[in-house]
Specification:
The structure is a homodimer of 337-residue chains. Chain A is of the alpha/beta class and 337 residues long. The first copy, chain A, is built from 12 helices and 12 strands. Chain A folds into 3 domains: 53 residues, 434 Repressor (Amino-terminal Domain), CATH 1.10.260; 119 residues, Rossmann fold (3-Layer(aba) Sandwich); 136 residues, Rossmann fold (3-Layer(aba) Sandwich). In chain A, helix 5 packs parallel to helix 12. The longest helix of chain A has 17 residues. Chain A is elongated and about 85 Å long. The termini of chain A are far apart. At the A-B interface, helix 4, helix 5 and strand 2 of A face helix 4, helix 5 and strand 2 of B. The structure holds a DNA duplex (16 and 16 nucleotides).
Chain lengths: 337, 337
DNA sequence: TTGTATGCGTTATCAT
DNA sequence: ATGATAACGCATACAA
């Protein structure tokens, strides 16, 4: 299709292209009558400003890039939806890319987005991230950027985080109060801030109750990670009284393995997860899980980004910590014997 | 950031910008030596061609738009991943938008993408679609487009579909062979092609076994839909021997409701779902479900689109039907009494 | 208030 | 094999 350009509209009305341009960007002086006339004619002709040309000259795209490790599970999609709501409302378009938990893909994705002149980025890192230096340079030199959930301490940028410390502490406390003492925490990648904070919460809960028979295993987030770790514990005969996993998938993987080996949940082992996956309510027994405010995380990140884009000068990299809830279910409740 | 342009590289090497451009698009005559020199220097300076400028002059964006009803559940994300693989490989970038099961949002999304000069579209419609006329005009006038899974018969465009008829027939047959006779099919939106085909399969299976005590209810795809329908059946005392739902979520919703009301699965009612959600393996009892080749669907749609983009002239709107498998699990297996 | 002219960073068509 | 230059569609400083 040969598209209609500003030139065609100008010719049709015998005005200059700048006048037409002005009609579409009403920040300039223009006679309201001519503007209306132009807008009407333009609509009639089916003219729409070419966003590509606009990007080239304005050096901004009204596009926001979002990079997430994956969107197979519902956590990131939910966050994205929250962000999208805010951004679309403000006239931005959202480009979503996923890194497939690969540091290399993540880097390529981000660069693609930067090359395509996104006005800002919202990023959640993949588990083993090796792009710190690149992100540092991005942050320092130029482009507005907000990190959420998975991030690294070294990066000084606005961040929207979950209060992992607090909710890990609560969850651990819940297990302790139920009477479980030998608890193992299955943690995520050790470099991630969230991993460190959850471990801190886990430890502090024990400290609070003057317990020290706990253990931390860096298992990873996936269901397979949970399965493998559980199997190892069984083989080594080191099955604890309770497990607090850093993701529901890991928790579910562990739960299934224990069940397969004849352990009963929560009678033999109690299990808690993190992030409230769709499954947790529906599996058997239902899984106790920490619920994060996914929607709000997305909205907050988007707002922080917009603020940064539109107020370029005086912005201070702030970190916002959000709260959630602990959904207690059968998997972690001590049975009355 | 002031980005480095082709001009800077040209100046640094005392060559013309056309030479630099040629070095980056090796279809033109250029001395291999100068090319290597330029490429080396460019890399050293951190120069990267500006894709926006490129798009402007080439009149194509190398962007592909994908519009799906939702990406909370894993089905569409998996398809998208398949498509993305192919597209990225071919140098395309993928923009993903979701319509939230709203016909209006879907229309807006599609128009946004068209305005942004996507070279092609991959679309799966929302349940109650009202944009047929728009899609017809898109197809006839201009832009390469491929529909997948959820589509309408009236739209004449390349389509990648699942062989819904065949697999609905198989599933129903499986239930019949297990000895269940009074079966209800919980169908999706009645206008969708897939709904029609699944119903046809469901009916033909009965015909094959000379049975006619079946029923179809247009319940919808969601978990709530399943819950509501099950509740109604219970209230009206019309609980069947088996249910074949058109989505796992619907099946799971129904299953939970039946369980809550004291029915045992599959003893009192057998249940089958569709599309193999993450949950089906993990709930209790595990849910029998038809598995679609999500990845392949995405890849096929992408390939079909690329073919259409690059061979504009002689393309025939073909429909590709893909096969899957029936994952039989406890929820539909007749117990030996 | 409107028109003219320039440039955004490329690619492509001429020359040379 | 290389250079000069005109597009691409638009926004904007400047002139009128």
């Amino acid at each position: 299709m040969k598209s209609i350009t500003i030139k065609d509209v100008a010719k049709a009305l015998n005005v200059s292209i700048s006048t037409v341009s002005r009609a579409f960007n009403d920040k300039y002086d223009i006679n309201p009558n001519t503007r209306d006339l132009i807008l009407k004619k333009a609509k009639e002709m089916g003219y729409q400003p070419n966003p590509i040309a606009r990007k080239l000259i304005q050096k901004r795209s009204y596009n926001i890039g979002i990079v997430v490790p994956e969107f197979i599970h519902s956590f990131f999609p939910k966050v994205i939806i929250g962000a999208q709501e805010v951004l679309i409302e403000k006239g931005y378009q959202v480009l979503i890319m996923q890194s497939h938990e690969s540091s290399i893909t993540e880097l390529r994705n981000t660069k693609t987005l930067v090359n395509n002149m996104v006005d800002g980025l919202i990023i959640s890192l993949c588990a083993e991230d090796k792009n710190v230096e690149y992100y540092k340079s991005l942050v320092s030199t130029e482009i507005p950027i907000v990190f959420f959930n998975r991030t690294l301490e070294e990066i000084e940028a606005p961040k929207v985080l979950f209060d992992d410390y607090k909710w890990a502490l609560f969850t651990t406390e819940h297990l302790i109060r139920q009477g479980y003492t030998r608890i193992i925490h299955l943690a995520g990648d050790m470099n991630l801030t969230l991993t460190k904070n959850r471990i801190k919460g886990f430890k502090d809960a024990h400290r609070k109750y003057k317990l020290d028979d706990f253990k931390i295993i860096y298992s990873g987030f996936s269901m397979t990670d949970g399965e493998v770790t559980a199997k190892t514990l069984i083989d080594k005969k080191k099955v604890p009284q309770a497990i607090f996993a850093s993701s529901d998938y890991c928790a579910i993987g562990a739960m299934k393995t224990f069940k397969n080996f004849g352990y009963s949940i929560p009678k033999d082992i109690a299990i808690c997860g993190f992030s409230e996956s769709d499954m947790s309510r529906h599996i058997s027994p239902p899984l106790t899980s920490v619920e994060q405010p996914t929607h709000l995380i997305g909205q907050t990140a988007a707002n922080l980004l917009i603020e940064q884009i539109e107020n370029k000068k005086a912005f201070i990299p702030q970190t916002i910590k959000l709260n959630g809830s602990l959904n207690i279910r059968e998997s972690s409740v001590k049975l009355n014997l």
